[in-house]
Every structure is written in C-alpha cells, then in structure tokens.
Fold this protein.
Amino acid sequence: MTSGGVTARDEVLGRVRAALGELRGTLPGVPRSYHGAGAGPVDLDLLVDRLRDYHALVRTNGDGHTVAGLLADAVRERGARSFVVPAGVPPAWLEALGSGVLVDDGTLTPVDLDAVDGVVTGCALAIAETGTIVLDASADQGRRLLSLVPDYHLCVVREEDVVATVPDAVARLDPTRPLTWISGPSATSDIELERVEGVHGPRTLEVILVPAAADPRPPSTPGQSSEAPVQS
Amino acid sequence: MRVALFVTCLADTLFPSVGQATVRLLERLGHEVVFPSEQTCCGQMHINTGYQREAVPLVRRFVEQFEPYDAVVAPSGSCVGSVRHQHAMVARRAGEEALALRAESVAARTYELSQLLVDVLGVEDVGAHFPHRVTYHPTCHSLRLLRVGDAPLRLLQQVRGIELVELPDADQCCGFGGTFAVKNADTSTAMLADKMRHVLSTGAEVCSAGDSSCLMHIGGGLSRLRSGTRTLHLAEILASTEKEPA
Amino acid sequence: MTSTFLGLPTVAATDTEHLRGEPFPVAARRALADGQLRANLGRATRTIRAKRQAVVDEVDDWQELREAGRALKAATMARLDEHLEQLEAAVTARGGTVHWARDAAEANAVVTELVRATGSDEVVKVKSMATQEIGLNEALASAGIAALETDLAELIVQLGNDRPSHILVPAIHRNRAEIREIFRREMPGVDPDLTDDPRQLAMAARRFLRSKFLSARVAVSGANFAVAETGTLAVVESEGNGRMCLTLPQTLITVMGIEKLVPAWQDLEVFLQLLPRSSTGERMNPYTSMWTGVTPGDGPQDVHLVLLDNGRTATLADEVGREALHCIRCSACLNVCPVYERVGGHAYGSVYPGPIGAVLSPQLTGVEQNATLPYASSLCGACLDVCPVKIDIPSLLVHLRAQHVEQHRATHRLPSPEAVTMAAAGWVMGDERRFAAAQRAGGAGRLLGGRRGVIATLPPPLAGWTSSRDLPAPPAESFRAWWRRTRGEVS
C-alpha cells in the first residue's frame, strides 16, 4: 500500500533508519558464555525422567526388545484399532502394526485423520534436558498434521538421536524444514493455572526409546525427506 | 575510619533518632563520624517523580559535599540506591558529563549502613543489646538495587537478647514507593495491608528495616491500626545497649 | 533493497483504543474493590511464581543466558532495518509473501484483504498480542469476517465478551466457576451439566473447537520469533491450537511487530531456554512450531507475514526507551509485580498490562496519551530481577516519568500543582539554610499531632497518605540541629 507515493515498506524502513540515526552506534557484542552446543554428555536417563515428568509414556528396550516388539506391545496395550503412519517408516514398523495401518500418501485430510486412533512416527532428535522430541517432516515423520490430529502419538526415538541440551538441538536442526517441538502431551494452564493435559493436540504421547541397532532400517530411508524441502 | 554521614532529608527532619543512632553506633565501633553541614537531599523524590531538571542542583550539592571523603554512609537503602544508580544518569541527561563522572566516583564510595558495616568494616557483632522479638523487612532497594543480601540479618543475629522472627513474603514491597504512596494511594494501601498482615502474624514487638521511608509507611499503617507493634530502624537496634536501650 | 540512509519521521500509534484506557489510579481503585478478582489473581500469580522459580533454579547458566538474551536483542535493534530486509528476502525466497503496515488500520486492511481473497468469511486465530493491539477481530467483524480465538483463555475472554488481563493467561482474572457460567451461556452445543472441573472445561473447549479446526481455511497468528537469517517464524504454545491453526488451513497470515526478530537461527538456542521457563514455568512448553515460507505438500500453501510498526519505530527512536522493544512477552514481570497482583491487567487499560505494559504502552502511544502508566509502580524492582532479557523496567519508568514532566512543561503555560511543589522542594533543598528554616517551620506541624504524636489527617494531595496511614509529627529537634547543638560546626 502507498500513501503519498511512499510504500508502507519504504516508510517503515525509513522510520527505522531515522530512529537509529545516520551515525548508528557501534554494534553491541553478544557474550555467549552460557553452555553452548557440545558442552555436555547425553544422559538418556535424564530424557526418560523429563519425558515422564511431563506425563509422556516411555518404553525402553531394557530387555533387548526390537522396535517392532515394542511397537506391537504399545499398540496392543493401547487397544487402538486404526493407525496412520508416514510413507517413509521402516518396513519392520508396518509389520508390527499389522493390517489396520494407514500409510499417508499425501492426500489424507484432517477429517480422515480425525477418524484414526493413533499415529506412529520417528523423530529428528530428542532433547534430554527438557524432555522434548523434535519432528522435522522427514520421511519417517511425514506431514505435520499426521502427528497432530490423532489422539495418540507413538514416537520412536533412537538413542543416537538424543542430544543433551537445547543448543545441541538448534545446532543439529535444519531451520528450513517445518519443525515441531513436542514436550509431553498438549496441555493448558489457562484455568486458575491448573495444568490440564490433552487439549487440542494428542492427549497421549508415548515414546519408544531404542538404540539404532534395535531399529533396523533400509539404507535409503533414515533422515530423508519425502519431498524436496526447498521451493524455487 | 573517617566516615561522612549522609543522614538523608527524611531522617534529618522526621527521624533524627536514626541519624543519632548511626553516629552512636559508628563511634562506639571506634570510627570518626563527620557531618558535612551543607548536605540536604539526594533528589530521589524529584528523580522518581520525573523532575530530573530540579534534581540536578541536588546531585551537584551531594557530590560537592561528599567528594572529600573516602567513605560515605547513609541509613537508607533507597537514598544510596539513588546515589549509586541515578545521580550520574541525571547529570548526563542534563548534559553535565563532568558532574556525571564525579557523581560516579562519589557513588562508588557511598554505602548503605549494613553494607558499610559488613562489607567494608568487616564487622557483624556490633555489641548491641536489644531483648525484644523483632521481624525484619529487607526493603526493595536494599534487596534488589544494592544487593545487600543478608548483611542486615547477620548484624541482627549477633545482637544480644534479640529474638529474630522471619517475616513471611519478606521480599514483597510494602507499597511505599515515594510519591507512589500518594499518586496511587489505593494500590499502595492494599500492598501495605498485606505487609502489615505478615508483620502482625509474626507476633513481633518491633518491625525493623534499613529505610526510614518504608518504616514511616509501615509504621503509619500500624499506628493507624493501633496494633502495638512499633517500627525501629536497623541503626537504632544496632546502637541499642543495656545502658542506652532503644 | 537499499542501504542508503532514507530517514523518515517516526510516529506514535494513532489508533490507541487497545493501548490506553482511563487513568490508572481510577481503574485501579475499582479493581481493588473487587475481592473475587484479587483472590483469583493472588492465587494464580503465587502459583506461577513458584513454578518459574523452580525451573529457573535448575539452570546453572541462567544469568549467562539472560545476558546473552539482552545482548542479542540490543544487537537486533541496532541494525533493525538490515534484519528486516534480510527477513523479507528469506521469507519471499521460500514462497511466502511479506506485507508492511505503518499502523493498526493499515495492518487490519492488509489482513482483511487477504482473507477476502480466499473467499472465506471465517478465520481461526492463535493467541497473538499484535492482533489484539490493532483490534483485528473487530476490524474483521466489520468486514463480515468472523474471527474465532482458539487459545482456551482467549476463547473464555471472547465468549465472555471480556478483555484479556494477562499476556500469557488472558483469563487469569476468571475462576473456574465464572468460566463454567460463560461456557454454559455462550458455547454452542455445550453440555448443560458441565461442572467447573478445569479438565471438563478444557474438554468442552476441545469439542467445540475441533470441528472448526478441521474445516478452517484461513488462520491468523502472531509470532514469538522471526529469524532474519533464514526467514523462519516460530510460535510457542501449549494446547495444540497453535499447531492446528498453523498446519491445517490452506492460508496462514502472521501479524508480527517489527521488533520480534532475532538475527540468526543459532540465537533461538538462547530464547527457547529463556521463554518457557520464564513464561509458563516449564522446562519447555508442550509445542513449538517453526516454519519457513511454504513447504510444498505440508501445511498452508499460501503463507503471509505482515510486519507491523504502530509506534515501534517511535519507541526505537528513544535510545533509552527502546529497551522496552526487547520484550519477549513472557509475562514473568506481571506475575511478580505487587501492583499487578492487586489490580489485575484491566487497570492498565492496554493489551500490554503490568510492568512491561507500563513502559511499552506509553511509548507506543506517546507518553502524554498514557501519562499515568509510568507512575503505576512502586519501583520495587522485582520485574527487573525476573526479566529474561534484563529489561531495566524501573529505570525505564523513571525515564518516562521525566519525559512526561518535560512534555507537560513544554505544552502548558502554567505549571501543574505538583510541578510547583517539586520546584519549591527543590528550592528549599537547594540550600541548607533554607532547609533548616523549613525544618523549624515544619516543627509547627507538631501542632497537628494529636495525643499520640501522629498526624492523622492532612489536606489534599497528602490526604492520600493519611487516608490509611498516620504520619509522625515532626520532632522537636532535627538531626542537624542536634548535631550543631551537641557537636558544634565541624565540617
């Protein structure tokens, strides 16, 4: 939009320049003396503790289970009938989930997903210190709506993808991908600041934490996008 | 040590016993106290109400009066807070850079009483005697602007006969805030009501603090309630002895 | 893009409906009389203070993070034009469209036009301070477009035909019983047997909003952060309503103040630690969404960003006052403020209440449009202690008070009674002999003192003091008189 021939863009930028002055001051330095990326070791127990503290369910392969076995257990215990998965999940997951599984082909609508009991995804990484999992829409995670609309989210975290802190996560993530940081089930504290879990997102978050060896994948799938991330 | 006393305009005018107690205490500890006689006011009320132009001569006066001394003490966290955190800013805003530099230099050697005693003179037991039940309100500017920490409590803990009781929600403002108490009297009074409730809940005979202004506020409320709990400045308790009780 | 200097005068916000109200003392007096409000606020702020403290104490580099946050924001402001141009280029390169708005009316017009172009007469909204500031919902309504707030607290406020009173928890002034009544009265299709259990109330909102989310074609959001380097926008939330709005509709329109930038992607490693712990008192909020332009096949394919000035450049022009633009809207300062705790957010008359509101609102509108807000503080300093980016709110309040006094002086022929008093006090204090004489004259005040030695009533303006507090009657002898009498003139 323009007024008097000057676009809003030029006017706002012009005002900023006027506010800063022609002889803008020296650029202040930024001290980064906090614990940055790579400052500390990864503590898997801390991740489990922090996930549970925010009421996520956690399964680990303490007795040497494969991811397929843990998935099957989780699905059985949950009693869920229908699941959706992204197109890029490893074949072993599909076998574990059985015949009722729906594979997203990119055409499922929010209404379709609302009729599904749960979703199974991988993740880009998990942050031990905060009990956070981060999805970046890679092939084993799929479109963002998959992990949002169904009421139960079962997420496989490989121990190798756990980082210690938020700076570690930021260093590893690609900002040009759509990112969803998830810490526990959805929650609200809007009524008298009393925490109520499960509002609009999945009311149950369950995490399966396994070493990569327990989650064998064909060489082409892990960490790859289902579509080109960059639009020209 | 030779210490210049900045008594503050409020203690000078309404609470002279606070200034007298400060003098008595420091002299008892073997220090020389001088009173630069042309001192008046630090200008905090002007500055905090927006009248910085009117505060410039007061800043200049303070600097001129106290510049000759190695240590300046005031029985007030908020006045020292103003000296330390506002004087140079006010001078600079008025375009008086030279005055600002002098103000910074004087401010660096201006101490609130408990700071002077504990941090500079290194004393916690001042030989006081005060056999009463006391609760201590730390006051916002001592706590958050000057960061005196637990210096006042360490001094009080060494007082003979004292029964020190913790004040619930001690770090909460009493609601004084200078002209805030008048401009926003209703809010100030609501804050005071909670502070008094906490003071009275301790069953203390005395509510103490390091600032006459907050004490005037709390004491004025307690007096209106005729609660029987009185207010005493930290200096008065520390100056108290068996021979000369506060 | 141009890097040559093209300075244009900054202007304060002109449409100030959502940034100013009646004088603070008047509104505060009314709020203080509401016992229910004070009880609700007292309980809520006490809870959130404890939660925040617990998770802040877990972090051993908290002070270093705060210092980095402060410095990053200062660096952002120092080159804001360059960062804005960089952001615009990055968003555009990835398929988004960037719009600019000088003021509220222009931003509302841009958004209205974008919604109209989709053919939709309904939008779902993620809680956003910027859109409240500009009154977007009202503007859309007047264009025949219904805006539905989807954050639970915002929904409570919207259904109750109420105003938000807190940055993070806009319905903090309502308790569960009041919320149940609002839902029973206003929420279509709600279970009439709804109890006041917060879980039941939240589930009622889930049911009500679910169908809206699934069918929404247009969403409007704010943004917590925008990364200039990459064009990435971030929304930090808890309920999942944000994810619903940011993911399901075809069109996403984000309205953001120009100050909410961070220069680089790495900088989020600081703010994503500072914000959740300061705000909800959590190590991490349940959901954070980040998007960069359009991702083909995933989420909205029609993505817009509206960059809003509305008084921000005027704030930036004040080298001291610009620090208020560092705010990341965590609301920690509200929760620790003894004034906010007692009067609530409505008394500030602005969508930005509490200590940060008292320094931000008057700068956005011009201080003379909001002259009582800088005085709405006892300067206790609790806000500075908790601010994750170390905004020195008490010093900014003092700075704005000085601006008010100077501007009042410049625009009025006669000084205010207060100015006369201050000038007189300054004159008295300007000379120790005048001060001593005033002390002797004040000794006459002893006559006002009753038997208890206190003064219980004074004329205005000091009646504000004696309405609830006694004043000690002046003593017989001032300190300096005592010193002179006992020590003689020594220095």
User: Anything to note?
Assistant: Chain C has two domains: 24-313, 419-487. The two ends of chain C are 67 Å apart (CA to CA). Chain C touches chain B through 70 residues (CB under 8 Å). The CA atoms of residues 226 and 261 of chain C lie 5 Å apart.
